[in-house]
Amino acid sequence: EKGMSGDDSKRQRTQPTLGYWDIKGLAEPIRVLFAHLDVPFEDKRYEQGDGPEFSKACWTDVKETVLGDHPFPNLPYLIDGDLRLTQSAAIIRHLARKH
């Protein structure tokens, strides 16, 4: 876009990714904040399958590759450009400061 440096332009085209289980839970306030801010994002949901014996393999099999060398590869997570965050309160604070 006009008036943006190369880095700013790239950042505008990259949508943040929010990852969490396929439930409302701890990620729902983050989803609501994205909607309120009118910020498009990828909503990556991990399905545990049917109970009573849920399988977390959909997350545990990929968590080391999704978040790289992040010291706490937990859900929910946010990938925003080069930034990787976990913990819902930290994610909400980041979004509030950024937007």
Principal-axes geometry comes out as: globular
Helix content: 25-40%
- What is the count of helical runs? 5
Radius of gyration: 15 Å
SSE order, one letter for each helix or strand: HEHEHHEEH
Q: Give the percentage of residues in beta strands.
A: 15-25%
Task: Explain briefly what this protein structure is.
The chain contains five helices and four strands; from the N terminus they run H-E-H-E-H-H-E-E-H. The protein has 99 residues and is an alpha+beta fold.
Structure, explained:
The chain starts with 5 loop residues before the first helix and ends with a helix. The protein has 99 residues and is an alpha+beta fold. The protein has a 4-stranded mixed sheet with strand order 2-1-3-4, covered by helices on one side. It has helices spanning 6-13, 28-37, 57-60, 63-66, 88-98; strands at residues 17-21, 42-46, 77-80, 83-86. 37% of the residues lie in helices and 18% in strands.
Please give the structural blueprint.
Layout: H1 6-13, E1 17-21, H2 28-37, E2 42-46, H3 57-60, H4 63-66, E3 77-80, E4 83-86, H5 88-98
Parallel strand pairs: 1-2
Antiparallel strand pairs: 1-3, 3-4
Helix pairs in contact: 2-5
Structural key phrases:
single chain, 99 residues, alpha+beta, 5 helices, 4 strands, 18% strand, globular, disordered N terminus
